[in-house]
C-alpha cells in the first residue's frame, strides 16, 4: 500500500492539475468571447474621414487655429462702413473698438453662412438713457437676423428686446448680464437658412447663444429678418452675407465697445 503521505501528495497534485486545466479552459473561453465581442463592436466603428486638427487658443476666448479674426485690437482692416466706405468707429488705447454714434453701422468685408462666433462687448460705465436707449447695439447675422446687445443690468425693458434676445423673436432663458463697464461675451452657433430655387424657405435659420458662459438661446428657429414694427418674415438671400454691428444712433445713450471678434465657418 502507498504511504499515506504519498497518497495525499498525489491527490493534491491531481487536484491542482485539474484546477489548472479548468482555469486554462476558462481563460480560453473568455478570450474567445472577448474576441467575438470586439469583432461585433468593430462593425460600428468609423475610422475615416479623420477630423481636421484644430489648435485651440492658449487662453479661454482666444481664437483657434482655423478662425477668421475680425477684430484684433490693432486695426479695422476686416471691416467697412455698411454698404461701403471706410469704417468710422474708433480704436481705443486699450484695443477696444467703440461705436461713434450717428456715423453708421460696421459691416464685415467678408460674407459668411453658418458660423461659430465669439464676440466680446462692453457697456459704458457712465450710464445714460434707460430701457432701449441704454447702451443699445446689435449683432446682425447675414445682415438681417439680430442678436440684441443692450445694458440689461438692472435696466427694465421689454423682455424680447433685452440682452441675449433674438430681437422681438426669442426671449433669453435667463438674464446673464454683467455690470456696466465689465466685459461680456457671446459665444454663438448660427445655422444659415436655406431657400428653394423659387425663393421659398426650405429650412429656417437656427441659433444657440451663450452669454457670459450661460445658455440663453438653445437652438431656436429664427422666424425671419428682424423687424422693429410688424412680424418677421423671410426673404430669399445669398448663401453668404456680411456680419453687421449696429450703431443705434443718437438715442441719448452712451456708445458701447467691442473686442476680440472671431469666426469659424461651419459646413
In brief:
This protein is an alpha+beta fold. It has one helix spanning 4-42, and strands at residues 68-71, 79-81, 90-91, 97-98, 106-112, 115-122, 137-141, 145-149, 183-191, 194-195, 201-203, 206-211, 214-221, 241-245, 257-265.
SSE layout and pairing:
Layout: H1 4-42, E1 68-71, E2 79-81, E3 90-91, E4 97-98, E5 106-112, E6 115-122, E7 137-141, E8 145-149, E9 183-191, E10 194-195, E11 201-203, E12 206-211, E13 214-221, E14 241-245, E15 257-265
Antiparallel strand pairs: 1-15, 2-5, 3-4, 4-15, 5-14, 6-9, 6-15, 7-8, 7-14, 9-12, 10-11, 12-13
Structure keywords:
267 residues, alpha+beta, Jelly Rolls, 2 domains, eight-stranded antiparallel beta sheet, five-stranded antiparallel beta sheet, 15% helix, 29% strand
CATH C-level name of the largest domain = Mainly Beta
- Series of secondary-structure elements, N-terminal to C-terminal: HEEEEEEEEEEEEEEE
Helix content: 10-25%
Reported by name, the CATH topology of the largest domain is: Jelly Rolls
Do you know the CATH architecture of the largest domain? Answer: Sandwich
Residue fraction in strands: 25-35%
Q: Calculate the terminal CA-CA distance, rounded to whole Å.
A: 87 Å
What are the segments in which pLDDT stays under 50 over at least 5 consecutive residues?
Answer: none
Secondary structure category: alpha+beta
